[in-house]
């Protein structure tokens, strides 16, 4: 029996096969990867990750920074500065407890779904990319039961290796209105001014300046100031159509959601996060969030370039819905 009878308007479920779990990552084939490798002319590298204990200052109260602790050795002792008699070895071994989407991260396709009646029985299911369902394809958390994405888990993204051509657009001054919403026209204008040309299978990297402020201000980060940073306007139909037509494989931003939702005019019964809906649910476009572009953006501007080789695998962590990342740009 098919997973769905009806798909949301504008969705392209089935485009890469009925059981596909990586969406537009499928577009990155060996030819496109060779094209990306050709951008690595200088051999210079940039780390696009924040230190994973950023943001500071408790600006995302629901998500928690990593906490390190030592593991326990088989002899019951703390495995930190651990030694055994009669040998010279000294061992440290540690554990981390962290929210996978606290800092620089990938949103997996299992991170975000919508309520939609895909089987046409008159009731909306909780449904994800390509028609995977919360009640069938996920283990829901319960007492003593850990949650798990049995479909669309982040390990699928890891298996694709996440390497291709990145293109960076600086939208720090492109935001429209008091909320800094960047619509289709504003994004196009920024791309034209910066000579950015997006090709099928590219990773579109959106530089808003948000992560620069996180790094600069540390514990003193000012939420009001952060919310003035620009972000994509997911309610703009022209922007959503362009994302579809452009063939981007993923969109990565240095802000927490890629899109901005404060100051947006929203209709009732629509998604709070329309760009998430469009990308993660309808098209299978992964979202990278809280990446850091400061040094890369400066170098690219100084060299009149916008493209680079991007290597950005998530953790190969079965069943997780997102993952920290340590993306690398090579120019
Ligand atoms: C949500 O908070 C739902 O999404 P994100 O991690 O993309 O910001």
Main sheet: strands, sense, barrel: 9 strands, mixed
Order of helices and strands: HEEEEEEHEEHEEHEHHEHEHEHEEE
Structure summary, number of beta strands: 17
What's the CATH topology name of the domain at 23-59 and 101-110 and 150-330? Glucose Oxidase, domain 1
Instruction: Compute the number of helices.
Output: 9
Low-confidence regions: none
Structural class: alpha/beta
User: How much of the sequence is in beta strands?
Assistant: 15-25%
Can you list the ligands bound to this structure?
acetylphosphate
Strand order of the largest sheet: 1-17-15-9-11-13-14-4-16
Task: Please characterize this protein's 3D structure.
There is one protein chain. This protein has 331 residues and is an alpha/beta fold. It has a domain at 23-59 and 101-110 and 150-330: Glucose Oxidase, domain 1 (3-Layer(bba) Sandwich). Helix content is 21%, strand content 18%. The chain contains nine helices and 17 strands. It is globular and about 70 Å long. Acetylphosphate binds at residues 101, 107, 112, 256-257, 276, 287, 289.
Highlighted features:
alpha/beta; two-stranded antiparallel sheet; 18% strand; binds acetylphosphate
Strand-helix topology:
Blueprint: H1 30-37, E1 45-47, E2 67-70, E3 94-97, E4 105-107, E5 114-116, E6 125-127, H2 134-137, E7 138-139, E8 148-149, H3 154-159, E9 163-170, E10 181-182, H4 184-194, E11 203-207, H5 210-217, H6 223-227, E12 231-232, H7 237-246, E13 250-253, H8 274-283, E14 286-289, H9 294-302, E15 307-311, E16 322-324, E17 328-330
Parallel strand pairs: 9-11, 10-12, 11-13, 13-14
Antiparallel strand pairs: 1-17, 2-3, 4-14, 4-16, 5-6, 7-8, 9-15, 15-17
